[in-house]
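Troubleshooting entry. The earlier prediction with iron/sulfur cluster gave an output that would not parse, so I re-checked the input for stray whitespace and re-submitted. Clean input:
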Amino acid sequence: LPHGLQPDAVTESICGYCATGCSLRVHLRAGEAVNLSADTNYPVNLGMACPKGWEALAPLRAADRATTPLLRGPDGELHSVSWDEALRTMVERFRGITERDSAEALAWLSTGQIPCEEMAFLGALAKFGMGMVHGDGNTRQCMATAATAYKQAFGFDAPPYTYADFEESDVLVLVGSNLCIAHPILWQRIMRNRRQPEIIVLDPRCTETAMAATRHLPLRPKSDLALLYGVARLLIENGWLDTGFIEKHTNGFEDFKAFLLAGPYALSEVNAASGLDEASILSLARSIGSGKRVSLWWTMGVNQSYEGTRTAQALINLALMTGNIGKPGTGPNSITGQCNAMGSRLFSNSTNLLGGHRFDREEDRAKISALLGIPESSIPTRDSWAYDRILEGAERGEIKGLWIVATNTAHSWCDQQRLRRVREGLDFLVVQDMYADTETARLADLVLPAAGWGEKDGTFINSERRIGRIRKVSRAPGQALADFHIFQLVAHYWGCGEPFSNWDSPETVFRMLTAVSRGQPCDISGISGYAMIESNGGIQWPLRESETGFSTERRLFADGKFFHPDGRARFLFDAPQAMPEPPDGDYPFILLTGRGTSSQWHTQTRTSKSPVLRKLYPENPYIEVHPSDADRLGLRAGESVIVESRRGQMSAAVHVTTTVPGGSVFVPMHYPAVNRLTLSSFDPHSRQPSYKACAVHLSRIRNA
Ligand code: SF4
């Protein structure tokens, strides 16, 4: 390193991108980060990091950071103002809405990217301090399905696994999960498996993961639920069941069995539905039914679907039928997306949840009131609307004030054209983010400049329930402040007084959360503070006060006891539904969207600031088209096409490839225009958008 960059200290912090939760060693000089490397001692990443992790400091140093509050003036432009003016204006406008309409006309939308302490602060401030009822996180777009599936099946949102399970399975089934690029370090964990495992990928696309697997089953788009039911029926027909486990630890198996035997799930019918040959389906069932240690993993291919919850539960059902849960190398395991989506799931207080407490129960409200020193009367008894309902409320003019924190709704939400109507329905939009140039911040009336990852302290919770420390390793630029500090200021300007004056540091709030969680399935009352997390390489929840020794890798349900009052897991199922917008003569292709690379993250808000990451990925949108479709339409590789759905259109360069099946096309989600095409269609249980299947048309761009 050049002399000025030689570090004089090193510290560790969990990466701020994906939910793998790698630890990075940050090299400091005079307290400022100058470089970083992967942490070799952390039990998650074992010395590895992906390109985003290696480039984690670049977004902090971007020249276009938001450095002062910006308020839209009478000329329609955003202008720098002081924090005092910004907060006075926010409070005045939001109070005006509250007085004219009601506090129900205010809402917030947040993220899975800020620490637990900030999420909890935002939820408590908005609900208990400012009187809001409605608020949700962008985790609705990625993890709501998994959370709902677990909650209904196990009695709590509880991914049961530990990452060591990747290394201890004999059979790993990955469904709708492109682990190689979405969670590359977790793929490396599979590569460390010395048991020579069978790795089976169920995905319509021949993804990087499908190519690297031992078997790829290219099922038809959205035939996964029928296929999984067919596999369940084969398990029954062939006696590949753990009947002891089913009888002792589950409810509803006989109903599920009757449903499978009465429905169209015979081998020939599932072959017709999925397009997979009968031998492959039977072989999949045999691998699951006769494997010693079988683990079933899923991500967005399942979650982002109009029937995602039941599909996730179909995977849970397979694990319950075969007793593959609570033991090394097993589990129905959802892999989370964002770095702190799990923290949001437990502590965000968005729709109704604070450490497992529900506000529709009086005893829970009383407990929260006593623990946080908040009058019980200020705890709303109603659940919040989910993300889609909040935006619909704004479209109808029922939500008038919206506070968006660290998320880029105008890029990432489906059926983007509707966002214009949302904006028109709002009287005042506040966006709190690191940059003022996101698609969402550009729509704001007020931008609050926020510190990013690396500029603040707190904790994240990763996919395997591991709570890890993040640290301030750099000063935020200009007048940008940590979200925690912004929430403190809003509480002050709103006049919340007690009890928010006690929320004086992230660690104080973390201790409150440990108290709030006591006695809940996510009980972390055994964690005394940040020092304990740091010295143990992170700690997986739960850790109760009474637990003395604990292992660094812990699974749930080793005793077969689930979180429903009777201690039993549930078999849950419904008949598969028709695709909401199937291809037809006008729109003949199924559009699949998803992650395109390990070097970009979601809406590229941060990753686009790294010249290194930008070089690793095409700047302009591309679309993957199967050669047979390209031939039929006369498309050449590299030429631009218009991709059009019933809602909007975009242009993209043609990439001719056999990785997509004929009749389907794929566009990465990192390009903003892709959500002009996607559909307002949601899983009915989780309200998660179905990003994976809508109908589109391709046409050549003709030169004049
Ligand atoms: Fe690890 Fe995910 Fe960060 Fe990459 S983005 S370094 S895989 S936590």
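This one parsed fine. The first helix runs from residue 51 to 54.
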